[in-house]
């Protein structure tokens, strides 16, 4: 009797112990979830800011937390340990989350790297961004992922509120900036800017950025176009504020304008480096589903009454720069050269005929050979018919270049000896580059 009873009693005790462990584990999970909800309540009751949410989640999960826009721009972040940094492998060099390669859900690693989890932030059926949390040593459980999704609801409230407030402020700021750029800012324009937290009483350049996609000729709905333009303006706002919160920046219906401070006396290359750094941050290395955009830069202005002239220069630079360089152009007004004059000429049959008659088949046949010949012709003209220098720039053997020059002269005439022909061909080639006038005139 005793021999049969002992195993049964032992088995029952084991099942009871296992049940007690499960109950204790479930109780711990419920307590953890209850603690988490109380923390979220405190965040909501204390204004519900994204920074507060990130700080709370970083401490709760023991490592870090981040909130980003839909294209990966970081809106808020926090770490549990002061001075700590987030893992670099899921962010690019500009600090943008690589949303195109970082999946939602939990990710586990067997080494000492951070475990992380991302969930979407959604409100009203629209995706507003992503909420991510990081831990070290302990992977995220299904319960943790559920808690993070609950936190995303609080993040959605914060993002929605910030966007609503920002929309009102942005409209007011945009109206003031437009008035300042068109000369209607009034005599107290500097003081008004200061009241908005902006500084325009210093050397600066006007920067205009336009998306390469033509929103006037698109199959997108007006709502989608407006949302994309607002996101584009926010990206510039984030990039500018990270550099200097006193830089004026606003989104208009077709472009984003920023008044970027520079040092008086800067040359064009230095100005382009300053603006180019901002452009790189906004692009975020081109990821996250961003639309490409072109950027135009004005000459330096030293007083607010020069803003209207600079704005016109930046608008011209972005328009002509795109024609000269294609999508994603970055152009300075002083680098437009003769293109400034050519842009004033409306496209017509006369213009098309001029290009066709000056370039012959180089203008009417788009082939790899003609591409090479146009490139050779452009460098030859740029070097003032210096054959040795042209050969060096194009990495051609001297005899190869001589053969190409002979072919060009059979097609165009004595371009190496006739200065007037050189000017005509050079202008026609510039127009061809800008307008892409392939078709033969009627």
Automatic annotation (TrEMBL):
<dbReference type="InterPro" id="IPR025736">
    <property type="entry name" value="PucR_C-HTH_dom"/>
</dbReference>
<feature type="domain" description="PucR C-terminal helix-turn-helix">
    <location>
        <begin position="373"/>
        <end position="431"/>
    </location>
</feature>
<dbReference type="InterPro" id="IPR042070">
    <property type="entry name" value="PucR_C-HTH_sf"/>
</dbReference>
<feature type="domain" description="CdaR GGDEF-like">
    <location>
        <begin position="183"/>
        <end position="319"/>
    </location>
</feature>
<comment type="similarity">
    <text>Belongs to the CdaR family.</text>
</comment>
<protein>
    <submittedName>
        <fullName>Transcriptional regulator</fullName>
    </submittedName>
</protein>
<dbReference type="InterPro" id="IPR029016">
    <property type="entry name" value="GAF-like_dom_sf"/>
</dbReference>
<dbReference type="Pfam" id="PF17853">
    <property type="entry name" value="GGDEF_2"/>
</dbReference>
<dbReference type="Pfam" id="PF13556">
    <property type="entry name" value="HTH_30"/>
</dbReference>
<dbReference type="InterPro" id="IPR051448">
    <property type="entry name" value="CdaR-like_regulators"/>
</dbReference>
<dbReference type="InterPro" id="IPR041522">
    <property type="entry name" value="CdaR_GGDEF"/>
</dbReference>
